[in-house]
Write a structure and sequence with these properties.
This protein is mainly alpha-helical. It contains nine helices and no strands. The termini are far apart. This is Aminopeptidase O (putative).
Length: 157
């Protein structure tokens, strides 16, 4: 509702300023809820983590605190490929640079599943992310299936 009211009542920079500050309490409450649930519910199965991460991918903004808490509590980088893939998507979407090592590891170890992630790294138009994609591709291309290699090569060059 705040966004709709904002867009109809105000315009330009004033609108963006108003919307951002009117939604801050919502995001702070979401972060607190997320951190609480992470502390309480440590014993989750991979399917639950995939669902959680997919829901979080729909969120336009997550705090660095929330991302770090997810990583620390669930040890996402040590989970199965499905969980790690969703984690890497969150890392790329929210530019969580401290976890780019997880993205690199995923691209090098799970090459077939990494095709979509290469696309995400390139579409963000972030120089660091694009460099990461190119670096990983140059390291992994010799081991890639030829069809996968061709698709990735077309995306990043």
């Amino acid at each position: 509702q705040h966004s709709a009211v904002c867009l109809t009542a105000l315009s330009g920079t004033v609108c963006l300023f108003f919307c951002f500050f009117s939604l801050l309490p919502v995001w702070r409450a979401f972060d607190k809820w997320l951190l609480y649930n992470i502390r309480v519910h440590k014993g989750v199965i991979p399917e639950q983590l995939v669902l959680l991460l997919e829901l979080l991918l729909d969120e336009p903004d997550l705090s660095l605190t929330a991302l770090r808490a997810l990583e620390k509590t669930y040890h996402l980088q040590d989970r199965d490929a499905e969980v790690r893939h969703r984690w890497c998507e969150l890392v790329v979407k929210h530019k969580h640079t401290a976890a780019y090592k997880d993205v690199e590891r995923f691209l090098l170890q799970d090459q077939a599943m990494g095709v979509y992630l290469y696309g995400e790294l390139m579409v963000q138009e972030d120089a660091h992310q694009q460099a990461l994609a190119r670096r990983c591709f140059s390291q992994a291309q010799e081991e890639m299936d030829p069809a996968v290699r061709k698709v990735v090569e077309e995306m990043i060059y």
